């Protein structure tokens, strides 16, 4: 008789037949850098995540490393915002300084930067608009190119465009190649949905749009084929890694992407997904293994890279539940 339970008899057997596991090689930890000195402030909408000033990285990068983190994704909250997102491509901007600092502290830490305009623009949008009604794609792409180049100049290993403008991956690839940064890779937020689960992040990054929403550029939450189209375009334009975002609620998209494309698939467990699970665990509604399970599910569905605010807890979770 076929008894699947035979292979569950003890931990050793379960380990032998386990198809998916997590390692610290798989994860990227997102951090938020802010202006100021000596700042380490818990983000109210994202418990146990912090706003850090650049000087604090001296200490924090060591802490991240001791927790097994090998890759960081940098988000900046700049000192000033304007119509053309100047602080996003300022060579002394918050992200550029943070990148230089991290590389100075630990040259082996992989540094990835989010390339977008929303935190840096006075209206909180990821693009420039013509009269607040139509996307000014040309101007937006020109700014994004400058942002990506400034990150590469600061020493970023990888840039991650999250704006969802058509053609941005190709434009960024070209400016990097033309400027001697052929070695800098692009992780594209290819299938980025107009999700409600970015709310805590927008509070953390001060990037709530002042009018309208992001539905003119981020994907409709009901679409799946369209995600494949976005990814195919990014492959053609030269992306190195394709990302699905959010992750937890979009495992079907991750699965489909993994089956269809030969590039590594990354998935971003976003701020709302983090907050939901974190608060349920802290509130005593779920046990801590739920965190591990949430990350494992993302990997099992086909993502080889998981971006998560839980990355700094993963080493301990693997020891307990891996
Ligand atoms: C910037 C950006 C956002 C996130 C990552 N990059 C916010 C948004 O698109 O509104 C969300 C990350 C998260 O929620 O954890 N465009």
UniProtKB/TrEMBL annotation:
Superkingdom of source: Bacteria
Active-site annotation: 192 (schiff-base intermediate with substrate), 245 (schiff-base intermediate with substrate)
GO BP, sorted A to Z: protoporphyrinogen IX biosynthetic process
Subunit text: Homooctamer.
Stated role: Catalyzes an early step in the biosynthesis of tetrapyrroles. Binds two molecules of 5-aminolevulinate per subunit, each at a distinct site, and catalyzes their condensation to form porphobilinogen.
Pathway, per record: Porphyrin-containing compound metabolism; protoporphyrin-IX biosynthesis; coproporphyrinogen-III from 5-aminolevulinate: step 1/4
Binding site for 5-aminolevulinate 2: 271, 309
CDD domains recorded: ALAD_PBGS
Name of the top EC class for this enzyme: lyase
Binding site for 5-aminolevulinate 1: 202, 214
This protein's UniProt keywords: Heme biosynthesis, Lyase, Magnesium, Metal-binding, Porphyrin biosynthesis, Zinc
Binding site for Mg(2+): 230
Gene Ontology cellular-component terms listed: cytosol
InterPro entries: ALAD, ALAD_AS, Aldolase_TIM
Family recorded in the similarity comment: Belongs to the ALAD family.
Organism from which the protein derives: Natranaerovirga pectinivora
Catalytic activity annotation: 2 5-aminolevulinate = porphobilinogen + 2 H2O + H(+)
Pfam family, one: ALAD
Cofactor: Zn(2+)
One Gene Ontology term of the molecular function aspect: zinc ion binding
The protein, known as: Delta-aminolevulinic acid dehydratase
EC number(s) on file: 4.2.1.24
Record: residues binding Zn(2+): 116, 118, 126
